[in-house]
Amino acid sequence: MPLTTMEPNPVWSEGAYEDTVDVLAEHRDELVYKVWGGDWCKDCRSQLPDFGAALDAAEVPEENVVHHETEKEDDGSKTGPGVEEYGIEYIPTVVVERDGEEIARFVEDADVPIAVSLAEEIQAALD
Question: Which regions are flagged for Basic and acidic residues bias (predicted)?
Fold first, then answer.
């Protein structure tokens, strides 16, 4: 089930993130973005719409973006598809894979937006 929070932010400015969009677009067909989040999560609601807009601007195919709806247990732990396999503790988490191998990861909070953080990691991994 797609995460509502991944719907692109309609006021996101592609021009402000041109370099980021260029990196995402350059590798749009070879990378898979696995997104863990929850529509109930305030961090997801504030961060994922801009990430969705960046992926949209880069024309990343829908089949290359996998949504993993995550729930929070009473003890704060997360449950859902792939949570244990990928060691997901905080959301949003985005794992970027190339040929099934992880090349980049964003976890919950950073000094820069999700797309910027991942574009930097992708560029470092693939250059």
Answer: 64-77
